[in-house]
Amino acid sequence: MDGDVAVGVKRGSDELNMYSSSPNSMTANGSDSKKQRLDESPPSRVLHIRKLPNEVSETEVIALGLPFGKVTNILMLKGKNQAFLELGTEEAAITMVNYYTAVTPQVRNTPVFIQYSNHKELKTDSALNQRAQAVLQAVSAVQDGSSPSSDPGVLDLAPPPSPVLRIIIDNMFYPVTLDVLQQIFSKFGTVMKIITFTKNNQFQALLQFSDPVNAQQAKLSLDGQNIYNSCCTLRIDFSKLVNLNVKYNNDKSRDYTRPDLPTGDGESANKDHSLLGAISPLSAAAAAAAAAGRVALSGSGVSGVLLASNLNEEMVTPQSLFTLFGVYGDVQRVKILYNKKDSALIQLSDGNQAQLAMSHLNGQKVFGKVMRVTLSKHQTVALPREGLDDQLLTKDFSGSPLHRFKKPGSKNFQNIFPPSATLHLSNVRDGVGEDDLRLLFSNSGGTVKAFKFFQDRKMALIQMTSVEEAIQTLIDLHNYDMGGNHHLKVSFSKSTI
């Protein structure tokens, strides 16, 4: 057993020497050498974190793991800018590594590297590690909802005073919408109400969780983080209020527990949306997806081309990839590789869309195989010369009418969610009933578990038995012709029925 345990600092150092013997072997998360190294070390709930910035705090390292589950131990090796982080379960560690393979983790705007450790657990009884243990004890108390018994001087973690956070956004070079805040903060618990306002020329928000413990976790994890690379910095404090009174549901305030509230004086969101559209309409959603995993996004200068691999070459077509990746961005071109038909290049409109698609689709099961998605070195996907592509492996979709994000201010910008078993259907034709839709989706090879029409019967939710089935039916039935010029629109929903 002892061989599987990292004790104090010394044993940790042995492992570090083993990794650092080849300093150039890992250039970036997601590189080939990284994948190879991940393959060499089997999954473990102990993760090895490298290239941490100087003076990084234990709290910041623990915060990397918080969104994925309980953090049970930490070992800081400050002289080497490295740390070991132990999560409560192997499953949580696998989720964390998979997420950060798709989106580079950053601490204080510096990319860091995360991989499985050779150790199965950490034993940290070293006197050098007492401070880290005290911080961890305090954080665990927050996670468990009890009051920490650690030295109060280590970390300001008294029992949380309020479920309401006051959020100030510094360096606000991009607009931050109420929906973006909801996506970021709901990673830590149920967000009940949000009110946004401008005070002293600063954008601020009050956000109420259902539980003060969730508010404390969110503050611990997100305070000081950037939503976008190098800007839109979150400054978070507890509010003196313990309950928010929301009168209207609009783009400035919302009570998620009361969808029946009026919209108020008819303030529209157009102003914000046109501004978003002018910058890069998907960047807000991309930032939300990334910040929900506590990562800053570097949208600028990133290629808009993705490489998808481990595809089912019997089933995959340019059209199916266009439909699936089109949920997260406007796909311009798709090329299935001639000599490697289980891989394809997908070109989106910009780097933000590519990162958004990658963070949501990497690791999803498509046509029975777990798809891998990484950023490609290519800047564009070249079209074949006339008459050379006899197998129709490359397709140009730039003129497609099916792009979801072409119109600035489109509602589609607000409805970008990870793949889920529940699908949102819209543009349902008059006279088409529940039985018709259940039959249509069952014929596509899935099993319908639940169904619910919205009041106007033009929209509905349909729940399949698995995320894989939902992906399959979305690929098959998005834009399905229901007759009378009604094409069914299908997207992933955040709701369950």
Strand order of the largest sheet: 12-13-9-11-10-14
Largest sheet: 6 strands, antiparallel
Beta content: 15-25%
Distance between the termini: 46 Å
| Helix content bin | 25-40%
Low-pLDDT stretches are: 1-39, 145-157, 266-301
Task: List strands and helices in order, with pairings.
Elements: E1 5-7, H1 10-20, H2 32-40, E2 46-50, H3 58-65, E3 71-77, E4 82-87, H4 90-102, E5 106-107, E6 110-111, E7 113-116, E8 121-123, H5 130-144, E9 164-170, H6 178-185, E10 191-199, E11 202-209, H7 212-222, E12 226-228, E13 231-238, E14 253-255, H8 270-279, H9 283-292, E15 305-309, H10 318-325, E16 331-336, E17 344-348, H11 351-361, E18 365-366, E19 369-370, E20 372-375, E21 394-396, E22 422-426, H12 434-443, E23 448-453, E24 460-464, H13 467-477, E25 489-492
Parallel strand pairs: 1-8
Antiparallel strand pairs: 2-4, 2-7, 3-4, 5-6, 9-11, 9-13, 10-11, 10-14, 12-13, 15-17, 15-20, 16-17, 16-21, 18-19, 22-24, 22-25, 23-24
Helix pairs in contact: 5-7, 6-9, 9-11, 10-13
